């Protein structure tokens, strides 16, 4: 047994158990606090809180006993400390809802809340993908219901019979079958040192594919920068012809829309490409600032500022030029 759990058991063993009279007294104080209409007087609140804390502390051993004696199957999947903590939460709720006027013992009443809290914890943390708590309860009853119907009918029950046995509709039952499927880890070894993830097709792009996609986006932005210097009609024609907006039109459709022949359309597109090339090389040439002779006077301040701004823009265009080996790169 772990050292932490041993220390916890030693600590809770220091609290004395309650007598039936003390259970009634403390339970009455807790109910007087929780059922009192707002605002609750400070004295009633303090007495109720102290009674609840003492009631819970005296029954912590009940939660440990429930986990160790009734949760053998769950301990194989979850740690004992987590199950005890979940049972303690159910114990607190049982103390707050215990009504001593009904005449039964607290341990009998608390057992249901302990089971409910532990079951809820296992349903929430026992799966890679959590499912609704009600579906978890139905799944817990699925195998016993299947065995009972198989024994009664002498054959395997149908889906409709299983749904009726569980008291759910067919839509809920079909969802239960989906939730019952196991979720395996991609690190699972399936034989000869082969992991399950090695046999699953990967949809994540590689580093080279990401770099290529970023390069295409950069080239598309550069192309748009150069095309802004063209008239609107020419920009629209290039966009449709090369699918720069994601939808490429055929040459026949463009020719029919513009009232041109296919040859005339190709000549116009070639002229636009040459114009783009001319605009690009003009920017590259302007980006190189010539060295001024020493005897020449510097340009006026206003003109120097304009030239500086223009050169900065030209340098940016040259660094991000959509050309490679003399070819225009479109997205």
Query: Count of helices?
Result: 15
Q: Give the number of DSSP strands.
A: 4
Extract low-pLDDT stretches: 283-331
CATH topology of the largest domain: Four Helix Bundle (Hemerythrin (Met), subunit A)
- Rg over alpha carbons: 39 Å
The major pleated sheet works out as: 2 strands, antiparallel
Outline the secondary-structure elements:
Elements: H1 3-12, H2 20-34, H3 42-58, H4 60-70, H5 72-75, H6 80-97, H7 106-125, H8 133-153, H9 159-166, H10 170-179, E1 189-191, E2 194-195, H11 207-227, H12 232-242, H13 251-258, H14 262-287, H15 301-319, E3 323-324, E4 327-328
Antiparallel strand pairs: 1-2, 3-4
In short:
The chain is mainly alpha-helical and 331 residues long. The protein has helices at residues 3-12, 20-34, 42-58, 60-70, 72-75, 80-97, 106-125, 133-153, 159-166, 170-179, 207-227, 232-242, 251-258, 262-287, 301-319; strands at 189-191, 194-195, 323-324, 327-328. It has 3 domains: 3-126, Four Helix Bundle (Hemerythrin (Met), subunit A), CATH 1.20.120.1810; 132-182, Arc Repressor Mutant, subunit A, CATH 1.10.10; 207-235 and 266-288 and 308-328, no CATH class.
């Amino acid at each position: 047994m772990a050292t932490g759990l041993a220390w916890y058991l030693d600590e809770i063993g220091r609290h004395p158990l309650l007598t039936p009279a003390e259970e009634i007294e403390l339970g009455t104080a807790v109910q007087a606090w929780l059922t009192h209409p707002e605002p609750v007087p400070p004295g009633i609140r303090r007495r109720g809180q102290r009674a609840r804390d003492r009631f819970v502390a005296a029954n912590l051993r009940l939660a440990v006993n429930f986990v160790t004696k009734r949760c053998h199957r769950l301990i194989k999947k979850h740690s004992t400390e987590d199950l005890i903590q979940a049972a303690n939460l159910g114990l607190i709720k049982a103390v707050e809802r215990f009504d001593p006027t009904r005449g039964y013992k607290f341990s009998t009443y608390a057992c249901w809340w302990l089971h409910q809290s532990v079951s809820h914890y296992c349903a929430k943390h026992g799966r890679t993908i959590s499912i609704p708590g009600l579906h978890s309860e139905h799944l817990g009853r699925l195998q016993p219901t299947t065995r009972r119907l198989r024994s009664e009918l002498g054959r395997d029950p149908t889906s409709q019979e299983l749904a009726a046995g569980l008291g759910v509709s067919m839509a809920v039952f079909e969802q239960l079958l989906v939730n019952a499927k196991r979720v395996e880890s991609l690190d699972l070894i399936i034989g000869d040192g082969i992991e399950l993830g090695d046999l699953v097709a990967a949809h994540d792009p590689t580093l080279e594919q990401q770099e290529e996609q970023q390069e295409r986006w950069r080239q598309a932005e550069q192309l748009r920068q150069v095309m802004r210097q063209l008239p609107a009609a020419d920009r629209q024609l290039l966009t449709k012809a090369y699918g720069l907006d994601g939808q490429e039109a055929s040459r026949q459709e463009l020719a029919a829309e513009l009232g041109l022949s296919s040859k005339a359309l190709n000549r116009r597109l070639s002229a636009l490409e040459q114009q783009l090339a001319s605009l690009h090389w003009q920017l590259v040439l302007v980006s190189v600032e010539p060295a001024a002779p020493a005897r020449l006077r510097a340009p006026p301040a206003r003109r120097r500022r304009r030239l500086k701004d223009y050169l900065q823009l030209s340098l940016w265009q040259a660094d991000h030029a959509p050309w490679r080996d003399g070819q225009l790169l479109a997205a």
